[in-house]
Design brief:
By secondary structure, this protein is mostly beta strands. It contains no helices and 11 strands.
Length: 117
């Protein structure tokens, strides 16, 4: 079982930026895929970005060009840099570690992101 811990959420005005961090308790090279999901108020949970153990990032259409997923393998940490934030980006952001895939991944407890003027 992978332990997952997110941090970095907070409140920001529209157009602002936040960087989320996700630390896991094992080497990122041993994890097939790391992903960020979010759930906004009254919305279904959705995947916003993921990165494979080869280092390639993928993005949901609404965040492409604004969000960047990256990693520091020396610190077993994955980041989500969020720029040009919009009110619709508000929600709880979860990090998921999928050793063999996201379907059986380990979830963190989430971190709240609020975008409001």
């Amino acid at each position: 079982q992978v332990q997952v811990a997110e941090s970095g959420g907070g409140s920001v005005q529209p157009g602002g930026s936040l960087r989320l961090s996700c630390v896991v308790n094992r080497s990122l090279f041993s994890i097939y895929v790391m992903a960020w999901y979010r759930q906004g108020p009254g919305k279904q949970r959705e995947r916003v970005a993921h990165i494979t153990n080869g280092g390639t990032g993928y993005y949901e259409d609404s965040v492409r060009g604004r969000f960047t997923i990256s990693r520091d393998t020396s610190k077993n940490t994955v980041f989500l840099q969020m720029n040009s934030l919009k009110p619709e980006d508000t929600g709880v952001y979860y990090c998921v570690a999928g050793i063999t895939g996201l379907e059986s991944g380990s979830w963190g407890s989430g971190t709240q992101v609020t975008v409001s003027s």
